[in-house]
Each structure stands twice: as C-alpha cells, then as structure tokens.
Design goal:
By secondary structure, the chain is α+β, with helices and mostly antiparallel strands. The chain contains 14 helices and 11 strands.
C-alpha cells in the first residue's frame, strides 16, 4: 500500500495480524529513529516549533519511556473512577439533550453531531481536565477539523488550531501550577512516582492528547453509532424493549462502526518475518482496525449488527501497551449518550435521505460531516 508522506507500507488486516502487531512492542516500535528509518525521523523536525513538544506524548514513545509516562498518567487518571463519574456524566448528557431539544423547538431539523455528539463529550473532558466552561467554544473551533482532514488546506487549519490550543494550554498549566482547579491538569502537575514527574513538554503533550482524543473520537463514535442504529431498526427496537442490553450494544457499535480505522504507524526494529511476510528493518506497518473488526475468523457473521454478540473481542481501542487510556470513559459516554438520546426522543429519525448522508473522507477515520435529525 502507498499513501502520502508515509510512502510504501505494510497493512495488517486480519484480527490475528493486528493484535500481534499491536502486542509485540519489541519487534514493532513507535520510534522511526529506533528502527533506522532516518527519513521519517527527520520529518518530525519540520513541525512548527510550537508543535514539537507534542511528539513527547506517550502514544509515540516506546519502552521504557512509555511505561514511565503511562504510570504517571494512570496515577492521575485514577483520581476518580468511571463508576463514580457516571451520575455526573448522565447529568451532562441530559444538559446536552436539553440544548438539542431547545434547538429543535426553533427548527424542523437539528444536527445531532454538532448539537449533541460534540457538546456532551467536550463538556466531559473539559470538566475532567479542570478547564473553564467559558473556554469550550474555543476548543470546538480550534480542533474541530482534526477528524475531517481531506485536503492540504484542512491540514493548514488543523496546524493553526493546534498551535492556538497549545499556547492556551501552556498558559493554563502555568495558572494551575499556582492555583489548581481540581481536575486532571492539576493531578498531572502533581503526579509523582519514585521522585519522577512529567517534564513541561510531556505535561503539555499529555493534556493536549487528553483534550483532543478525549472528545474528538467520542464525538464521531456517538454520531456514527446513532446512524448505525437508524440503519438497523431491529437493533434499536431490541434496545427500546430492554435497555439492559446497552453495554453489549455499545461494544457491538464500537466494532461495527470503528471511528479509528487504522493504528498509528509502527516500524520494524529489525529484519523479521511477520504473518508469513518478510519485513525489512525500518519499514512501516499499519494495523487496519476496521478490517480486524470485520474478520470472519474472529466474528461470526461480522456484517451483522448483533447487540447480543458475545464474546466481542473488537480492537476499536487498540491492543497491547498502547491500548487506549480513556477506553472506559469513552465506553461510558457512548453508552450514556445513546440511552439518553433514544429514551428521551424515541421517535428520533433522520431528517434527510440516507443516501445523502456524507462522511468527511479523512484518512484513517470514519467521521460524519453532519447528522440532521428530527426529534419527533
């Protein structure tokens, strides 16, 4: 496979190949330099200076650096468990649903993506981080294009937005170092293990990662899951009959509608044989999560949406040491969002022909441009 910037690369498509790729962090690494890929390592030097600290976050680090960063972040992330947060998550979902209903009172149709799927997870992550309520519109504007990049011009807007967000977060971290607000930013500032703390750049990179990944991915998973239920009325009917199925339905929707289509690039640390193919040191590999989640050797009738599917060994959140840190939170948000939406608005339906629904076309992500609905 050949794609822009990365050039020629290998793609793992089966469930077995993807899980092996993600779990073997000895042979497949995140660092291009560690694998002898000088071109990819040099490419990072062309990042704008304001964005270079972002390359220090743990998703781009190998062992032992990854273990060190993950341990420090885990300690901060466990300050409040998801079970403790759930009642407040439900309150925030209700507030977002109130806003959706208010908009619907003045229009024949509303955009479920912009008017519910975005404000709900954004409110969640801003509260968890301890960011001011009044600043949320800024983040929506600055990072809203990340999952819809489909042209060079979009990249320019994303870089510009990330630079603004980076400057804001650097200032906010400085403020909270003096006057903590009680969220994850303050917890990360204070996180310590055996005398070790996050550096200024590592702290900035981690807060930005949590802000962007903590809401942008969930935005599109919520919207895509709602669309999937519109496409499968029998599944929606099963949920209306028994909402105790919500947890299993959420897992199935994560499998069936995989927002993240591909993993981040891995690099072969050495010459090796992988799944019967000879891979040279420094070559690039991607795991296709969407293909793995549709592998008939891992899932019976993978084309079907089965809200009672068990077991469900999907890889929507990756696997191995880089398994998504916020997976439990994302699961809870999707589950709560869908239950709140479809119980409050049981007659909600698409406000446009299904054939007219458009995806962004962004590489590596399955994201909708909009999802117009009628609530009644």
């Amino acid at each position: 496979m050949k794609i822009p910037v990365l050039g020629n690369l290998w793609v793992a498509t089966t469930h077995d190949a993807v899980t092996e790729l993600l779990s073997d962090h000895h042979r497949f690494v995140q660092s291009a330099a560690a694998a002898g890929n000088r071109w990819m390592a040099a490419a990072l030097r062309f990042l704008p200076r304001t964005l270079r600290p972002l390359t220090t976050h743990m998703l781009l680090r190998d062992e032992p650096d990854h273990r060190r960063l993950r341990h420090l972040v885990d300690r901060a992330f466990r300050v409040r468990s998801i079970d403790d947060l759930r009642p407040h998550l439900e309150t925030l979902a209700d507030e977002a649903a109130d806003g959706l209903a208010e908009r619907a009172s003045h229009a024949a149709a509303v955009d479920l993506l912009a008017d519910f799927a975005r404000p709900f997870p954004l409110a969640v992550i801003c509260e968890l981080l301890g960011l001011p309520l009044e600043d949320r519109p800024k983040f929506t504007k600055w990072v809203g294009k990340i999952s819809s990049v489909s042209s060079p011009l979009d990249i320019v807007f994303v870089v510009h937005g990330l630079a603004k967000t980076t400057r804001y977060l650097r200032d906010e971290i400085a403020r909270q170092s003096v006057r903590p607000r009680g969220g994850l930013i303050a917890a990360l500032i204070e996180a310590e293990h055996d005398g070790d703390r996050l550096t200024d750049d590592e702290l900035l990179a981690m807060v930005l990662l949590l802000l962007v990944a903590g809401h942008e991915t969930t935005v599109h998973q919520i919207a895509g899951s709602a669309l999937t239920l519109f496409d499968h009325p029998e599944a929606l009917e099963a949920l209306h009959a028994d909402w105790s199925l919500t947890h299993g339905a959420t897992e199935e929707l994560l499998r069936h509608f995989s927002f993240a289509q591909f993993t981040k690039p891995r690099f072969a640390r050495e010459d090796l044989v992988f799944q019967g193919q000879t891979i040279r040191r420094g070559e690039v590999l991607l795991g296709c999560l969407a293909a793995a989640n549709a592998d008939p050797s891992a899932f019976d009738h993978p084309e079907r949406l089965d809200v009672r599917r068990t077991p469900n060994r999907h890889v929507a959140f990756g696997d191995g040491i880089h398994h998504c840190l916020g997976a439990a939170l994302a699961r809870a948000e999707v589950e709560i969002a869908l239950r709140r939406l479809f119980t409050r608005f049981p007659n909600m339906a698409l406000a446009m022909p299904r054939a007219d629904v458009r995806f962004t076309g962004a590489f590596g992500a399955r994201s909708l441009r909009a999802l117009p609905v009628r609530l009644a």
